[in-house]
């Protein structure tokens, strides 16, 4: 199972990288969110996918799952939710203002006015 | 082009309250079971987004005439404010405590200070989500 | 007094939240931000003395014992940087009062300024790697907003790239945390430091993780070859924002490398620290090449930010006491003086109406004060003795020599000279040369813009002249980094 999940994380990173390398805003933004998901899956897998009871007081169980990675992933997901939505709005505004969603046309020039 | 979304609008009228009720349940469930301020807030926000999709932005504004940026700020203030309580009691920041109280109708209930923090999270999530949706939605 | 350590984080955070309620009341926003910034300076200086007298201060958030809960650790390095941050942010805030236009002020400029400070201070104070990620994100999200704030075309264009680079490096950060947790089973830095010694069989994978973290922090801290995003994006926003970015944001990345490469990843220094040394040398060289090549004053200064990254990280890579002390001195000096230079350059652009060197000249005729302040700041940057850059560079050279890195010391000397050349070029072309400005206030005046830079230059002179007094503090900071046992004992209380 861990092997499968590692491969999945790799596939997500690969797909995300492919999307980020394209030229359209919306593809890039979706690509970054896929990369973040890859990182989250990786975090989940790295902590071990053992089966165990939830780590709550008063529960009789031989093994407990490690709660820390889940807390970490929740935090990371919330952050990536916020950043992705900001990024969406930014991409939209940039498209409105510059009139293009092609990153090739957004190359920096030396003039700053 | 005027689209005909009578099915969506009719369904929304019923589903809206189910989602809202479930979100409140999720919110209070959070201390010992899966749930909590984040997921409750997200669910409430999704109910409002459904309303926004079925009708329009004016409708949401009529029903809820509040500035969602202020909701976010109020939520942040609540969440940080619960942390500040620890200064009064001389315990580490964000310490929490709980106790059991008996209520007339509800019986014995556990009340935890963590719930206050969760109220803050709940408000922040609603505020942020709807601010984002409104920002994109308004600009057309 | 248990909660004293969190005050530097809470003050800007609470101020920011309160300001969110009153977006249109600009005067109130200014007054409250000013009070908060002054308070932050006072609290952080008090904390410096407390750490000096009573040793490392820790706060276990929510009463959870480390390594299970998140712990805030105020050791000397962290708290010195927090104090410097507070002073720089106060000066930049004063500068924003006169330079940020009313439209921006009404759109949450001051709240996000405070949130940015929250993130920076939090990243310095935390003792947990994942919490470091969270404070990084607080800082970055505030910086995303500030960099695009105002929404001009060039800002939108550059901020898209800035956000993209940082989102990807954040994802890599999470991946790094995942690997580290898999290998060490903890994320508390003191606990990690303790465990890393017993993980000798895992050394190769730890080295991989160390390099992954170097990439992540290198992207945020503008290390060669990962600084490509920095010049264009830092030149885009208004100068007050550029000043706070140039003075603080890259420094947080550098601090993270400093911390992890002295406390955590010390299992295979022959490999990891050699990479760091070589990259630091290349950063110095390529940064200064950029500074010499450009004709735009903002760009010249931005490339100088990259040079400083190289200097500090070279000190970290030596793993000697002199090198560490030099790095700390230089880091503090650079935060102050880069802030001052960005503000002065901002004032120059205001009075000249352009940022291109060819179009300005003879500014000294009407703006002598500005000119000589700029000259003093450049002298401090390069390290002329009574000012602040000297002691840092001296210690860095000593550390480099005692670590046997003669080539890199030589590269440092050469790039210092070129830094001098690149900055003096601004002075000679911009302030002397053909007079382009007919009247004193043709494009704008320097009213209120000089005081903040004067404060920072005074602080810089203070660091230089008071180096003797500052020395014991910096020595304590370096000792804690060289002997992680002190840090571990203070955090885990064994």
UniProtKB/TrEMBL annotation, chain A:
The keyword Hydrolase does not apply. Keywords: Cell membrane, Membrane, Transmembrane, Transmembrane helix. It is a multi-pass membrane protein. The chain crosses the membrane at residues 6-21, 28-49, 69-90. Pfam families: Oxidored_q2. The keyword Hydrolase does not apply. It is found in: Cell membrane. One of its GO terms (cellular component) is plasma membrane. PANTHER family: ANTIPORTER SUBUNIT MNHC2-RELATED (PTHR34583). Belongs to the CPA3 antiporters (TC 2.A.63) subunit C family. This is Multisubunit sodium/proton antiporter, MrpC subunit. It comes from Alteribacillus persepolensis.
TrEMBL record, chain B:
It is found in: Cell membrane. This is Multisubunit sodium/proton antiporter, MrpB subunit. It comes from the Bacteria. One of its GO terms (cellular component) is plasma membrane. Belongs to the CPA3 antiporters (TC 2.A.63) subunit B family. The chain crosses the membrane at residues 7-28, 34-55, 67-91, 111-133. Signal peptide: none annotated. The keyword Zinc does not apply. Its main location: membrane.
TrEMBL record, chain C:
The chain crosses the membrane at residues 6-22, 31-49, 69-95, 107-126, 132-151, 163-184, 204-228, 240-258, 270-293, 300-319, 339-358, 370-392, 404-428, 449-474. It comes from the Bacteria. It is a multi-pass membrane protein. Keywords: Antiport, Cell membrane, Membrane, Transmembrane, Transmembrane helix, Transport. It is found in: Cell membrane; Membrane. One of its GO terms (molecular function) is NADH dehydrogenase (ubiquinone) activity. Residues 128-418 form the NADH:quinone oxidoreductase/Mrp antiporter transmembrane domain. Its main location: membrane. The keyword Nucleus does not apply. GO terms for biological process: ATP synthesis coupled electron transport. The keyword Transmembrane applies. One of its GO terms (cellular component) is plasma membrane. Belongs to the CPA3 antiporters (TC 2.A.63) subunit D family. NCBIfam families: PRK07691.1, PRK12663.1. This is Multisubunit sodium/proton antiporter, MrpD subunit.
């Amino acid at each position: 199972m861990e092997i499968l999940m590692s491969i999945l994380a790799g596939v997500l990173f690969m797909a995300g990288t492919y999307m980020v390398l394209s030229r359209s805003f919306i593809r890039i933004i979706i690509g970054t969110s896929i990369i973040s998901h890859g990182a989250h899956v990786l975090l989940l897998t790295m902590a071990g996918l053992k089966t165990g009871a939830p780590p709550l007081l008063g529960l009789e169980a031989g093994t407990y799952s490690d709660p820390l990675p889940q807390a970490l992933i929740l935090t990371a997901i919330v952050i990536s939710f916020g950043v992705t939505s900001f990024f969406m709005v930014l991409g939209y505004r940039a498209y409105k203002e510059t009139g293009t969603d092609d990153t090739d046309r957004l190359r920096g020039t030396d003039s700053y006015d | 082009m005027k689209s005909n979304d009578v099915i969506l609008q009719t369904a929304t009228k019923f589903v809206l309250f189910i989602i809202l009720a479930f979100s409140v349940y999720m919110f209070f469930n959070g201390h010992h079971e899966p749930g909590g301020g984040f997921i409750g807030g997200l669910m409430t926000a999704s109910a409002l987004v459904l309303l926004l999709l079925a009708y329009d932005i004016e409708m949401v504004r009529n029903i809820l005439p509040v500035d969602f940026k202020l909701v976010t700020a109020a939520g942040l203030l609540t969440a940080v404010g619960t942390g500040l309580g620890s200064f009064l009691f001389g315990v580490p920041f964000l310490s929490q405590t709980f106790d059991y109280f008996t209520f007339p109708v509800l019986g014995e209930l556990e009340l935890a200070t963590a719930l206050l923090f969760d109220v803050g999270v709940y408000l922040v999530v609603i505020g942020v989500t709807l601010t984002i949706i409104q920002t994109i939605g308004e600009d057309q | 007094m248990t909660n004293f350590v969190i005050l530097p984080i809470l003050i800007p955070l609470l101020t920011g939240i309160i300001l969110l309620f009153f977006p249109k009341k600009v005067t109130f926003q200014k007054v409250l931000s000013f009070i908060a910034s002054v308070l932050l300076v006072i609290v952080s200086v008090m904390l410096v003395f407390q750490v000096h007298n009573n040793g490392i201060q820790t706060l276990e958030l929510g009463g959870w014992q480390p390594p299970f809960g998140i712990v805030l650790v105020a050791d000397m390095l962290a708290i010195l940087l927090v104090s410097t941050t507070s002073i720089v942010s106060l000066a930049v805030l004063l500068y924003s009062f006169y330079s940020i236009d009313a439209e921006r002020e009404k759109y949450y400029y001051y709240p996000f300024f405070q949130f940015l400070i929250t993130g920076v201070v939090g990243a310095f104070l935390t003792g947990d790697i994942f919490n470091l990620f969270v404070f990084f994100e607080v800082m970055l999200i505030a910086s995303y907003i500030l960099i695009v704030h105002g929404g001009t075309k060039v800002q939108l264009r550059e901020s898209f790239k800035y956000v993209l680079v940082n989102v990807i490096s954040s994802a890599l950060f999470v991946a790094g945390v995942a690997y580290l947790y898999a290998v060490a089973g903890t994320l508390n830095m003191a606990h990690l430091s303790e465990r890393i010694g017993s993980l000798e069989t895992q050394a190769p994978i730890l080295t991989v993780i160390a390099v992954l973290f170097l990439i992540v922090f290198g992207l945020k801290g503008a290390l060669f070859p990962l600084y490509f995003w920095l010049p264009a994006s830092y030149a885009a926003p208004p100068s007050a924002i550029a000043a706070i970015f140039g003075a603080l944001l890259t420094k947080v990345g550098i601090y993270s490398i400093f911390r992890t490469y002295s406390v955590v990843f010390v299992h295979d220094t022959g490999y990891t620290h050699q990479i760091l040394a070589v990259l630091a040398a290349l950063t110095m060289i390529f940064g200064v090449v950029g500074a010499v090549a450009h004709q735009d004053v903002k760009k010249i200064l931005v490339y100088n930010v990259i040079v400083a990254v190289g200097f500090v990280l070279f000190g970290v890579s030596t793993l000697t006491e002199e090198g560490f002390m030099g790095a700390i001195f230089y880091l503090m000096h650079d935060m102050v003086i880069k802030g001052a230079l960005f503000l002065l350059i901002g004032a120059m652009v205001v009075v000249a109406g352009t940022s291109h060197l060819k179009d300005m000249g003879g500014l000294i005729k009407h703006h002598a004060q500005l000119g000589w302040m700029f000259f003093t700041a450049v002298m401090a940057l390069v390290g002329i003795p009574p000012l602040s850059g000297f002691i840092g560079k001296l210690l860095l050279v000593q550390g480099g020599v005692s670590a046997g890195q003669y080539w890199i010391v030589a590269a440092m000397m050469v790039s210092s000279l070129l830094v001098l050349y690149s900055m003096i070029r601004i002075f000679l072309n911009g302030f002397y040369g053909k007079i382009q400005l007919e009247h004193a206030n043709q494009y704008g005046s320097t009213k209120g813009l000089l005081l903040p830079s004067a404060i920072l230059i005074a602080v810089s002179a203070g660091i230089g002249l008071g180096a003797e007094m500052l020395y014991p503090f910096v020595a304590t900071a370096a000792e804690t980094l060289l002997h992680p046992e002190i840090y571990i004992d203070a955090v885990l209380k064994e």
